[in-house]
Amino acid sequence: MAGEEGPPSLPRSAALDRLPSYPLADIPERKRALAEKGVDVIDLGPGDANLPPPPRAVARLHEVVDEPRYSRYGFQLGLPEFREEVAAWMKARFGVSLDPFREIHPLVGSKEGITHLSLACLSPGDVGIVPDPAFHAYRGGVVLAGGEPHFVPLRPENDFRIPLDELPDHVVERARILFLNYPNNPTAASVDLDYLERAVAFCRKNGIVLVHDQAYSEVAFDGYHPPGVLQVPEGRSVAVEFHSLSKTYNMTGWRLGWVAGNRELIESLVRVKSFIDTGPFLAVQAAGVEALRSHREWLPENVETFQRRRDAAVMALRKAGFTLESPKATMYLWVSVPEGFSSEGFAREALDRAGVVVMPGSALGEGGEGFFRIALTDTEERLQEGARRLGELRRG
Ligand SMILES: Cc1ncc(COP(=O)(O)O)c(C=O)c1O
């Protein structure tokens, strides 16, 4: 009878059905339920530190937000001063000279740029080589572009690297894009310039776009300075590198990053973006200039905080019986799950029985099975308390 039919079934794209759900989607709800019961939940899940952004960035935001011109569209050009400051930063950090208007482009956080680049480079059926486990934007972009991700497990026996020489020919022939991320989320592994040189040579030989995600380039310890792909002399011919203010400057919510490198790739990305966004908030770009300028005086203390947290958490976790390496970089620890647990099972019990949020390795790809990730996003004391509770859970 008319009017009694159920709701119409609405269209969904084929790509949507190929996207996995967001790994931490149900955590806030479960955390809230536990907090309502009076549980003191220690959240070591997302890579979102409890530390403040550089004061100079905050002060600049206050200033410019009162000026109407910063409230207007930024368009793709954005604030020229931000591009110029990024160029100066890249020169000081990596020794590379880049054209601020053709080899650098501001992003609404690096994640959108990473995902959108696949829309600019891939046609349906093309293969994207994706590390597994990994930040989910790589897979997301490839799938949304109609491409096929080819997942390569990152395992301890390969130092959590993609063994480029061992990729099958049929994959390499169809591959159009390769994602690398060092220092790595979630495994916390690092590489030296030699690996990036080999990756550039591999991509040049096979006509593959090389994406290097360097969101954690500055969160590095014990005097280690992670190398960038644009330091490789031929890097610019095939590669772009994604940078973010999120982790370096504790500015996750501000949504500001940049891409640097091959100008043709940047031009293609900008074309896609011009249909999707209108650039980061100009006031945030102005504040970003100050964050970059405050790098030398502000960054060391912030990194020392992460280093102290790393040391405290590694020691506490080992004492609690867990097996893990002490990483040279990133805000993560990659820890083997105790025997008898799956990654997901351990993470679920960690929250429900110990009140500790950890990221199950398998939520970031099947290759992460057997591990869980701890984010160094809370104080040393809370990390130690979290480790103690996880140790109790381990002992049963
Ligand atoms: C490896 C990696 N790349 C990129 C990002 C995204 O950073 P942004 O906040 O700049 O989008 C993250 C965030 O967690 C990340 O872990």
Write the layout of secondary structure elements.
Layout: H1 14-17, H2 27-36, E1 42-43, H3 55-64, H4 80-94, E2 104-107, H5 110-121, E3 127-132, H6 137-144, E4 148-153, H7 169-174, E5 175-180, H8 193-206, E6 209-213, E7 239-244, H9 245-248, E8 257-261, H10 263-273, H11 282-293, H12 295-319, E9 332-336, H13 343-354, E10 356-357, E11 359-360, E12 371-375, H14 380-395
Parallel strand pairs: 1-10, 3-4, 3-5, 5-6, 6-7
Antiparallel strand pairs: 2-8, 7-8, 9-12, 11-12
Helix pairs in contact: 3-11, 4-11, 5-6, 5-10, 12-14, 13-14
The structure holds pyridoxal-5'-phosphate.
Pyridoxal-5'-phosphate (PLP) binds next to α5.
In short:
The chain has 396 residues and is an alpha/beta fold.
